[in-house]
Design a protein that fits this description.
Blueprint (H helix, E strand, L loop, with lengths): L1 E6 L3 H12 L4 E7 L2 H8 L8 E4 L2 E2 L2 E2 H10 L5 E6 L4 H9 L4 E4 L4 H20 L6 H12 L11 H12 L5 E2 H8 L3 H13 L3 E6 L7 E6 L2
Helix pairs in contact: 2-3, 5-6, 7-9, 8-9
Pfam families: Response_reg
Protein name: Transcriptional regulatory protein
Keywords: Activator, Cytoplasm, DNA-binding, Phosphoprotein, Transcription, Transcription regulation, Two-component regulatory system
């Protein structure tokens, strides 16, 4: 499991980001910090192992960039994802220079949040597989998994509805058909099928055939675990 520290001076943001993390497979929140000083205290506590920090960039007692620079000066290699409303290019450039792996601008959807965490998880898993000496192609694949741009949705699909359908498929103990999803979420079967097909096309779900009667088998969708 990837152990996460959530840092934000807004208690509602901490609650929301914690809930988001807990919905993404492979991650667990191990602590919260309400400011820069509290974050540094948590991150220098040798009794608490932290792999990833979700870090607000503007807090009353210090900036997120100051936290990252202090950590790097102290030799910390913890990874950081900036979660912030600050969007000017100078801050983005400074964040990248400081080694922040992703920069997520508030407000954002759960789908956008999940996409960054899943990209980071793929990067970590790739590092584990490539332990020791790596080839150029392995390095390219690692950096590509981390920096891959979000895939734009096909016309007519929304991030919010995609997240709902994905959660329905992910949480099901059995493969679901477009009829199953349509009835559960109150949408048309055609709409449900478009979202399910997108999940399958992007590798998050797999297609299966359900045989239960005469005629053609029904196509169902199961989450790729």
């Amino acid at each position: 499991m990837i152990r996460v520290l959530v840092v934000d001076d807004d208690a509602l943001a901490v609650e929301l980001h914690t809930a988001y993390v807990e919905r993404v497979e492979g991650f667990v929140v191990v602590g919260h910090a309400a400011g820069a000083r509290a974050a540094l205290t948590a991150l220098t506590d040798r009794a608490r192992a932290i792999d990833l920090v979700l870090l607000d960039m503007t807090m009353p007692d210090g900036g997120g960039l100051d936290v990252v620079r202090h950590l790097r000066a102290a030799g910390s290699r913890v990874d950081v994802i900036a979660v912030t409303a600050v969007r000017d290019s100078d801050n983005v450039r400074a964040a990248v220079s400081a080694g922040i792996v992703h920069y997520l601008i508030k407000p954002f959807t759960f789908a956008a949040f999940r996409e960054r965490l899943e990209a980071y998880r793929a990067y970590v898993e790739g590092l584990e597989r490539a332990a020791g000496s790596t080839t150029q192609s392995e390095v390219d694949a690692l950096l590509g998994s981390l920096r891959a741009a979000p895939t734009p949705l096909p016309k007519g699909l929304s991030d919010e509805t995609l997240a709902v359908v994905a959660e329905r498929v992910r949480g099901s103990a059995r493969p679901l058909s477009s009829t199953d999803v349509a009835e559960a979420e109150g949408m048309s079967r055609v709409t449900a099928r478009r979202y399910l097909e997108h999940l399958a096309d992007t590798g998050r779900a797999r297609r299966e055939s359900r045989y239960g009667g005469p005629g053609r088998p029904e196509i169902t969708y199961a989450w790729t675990r």
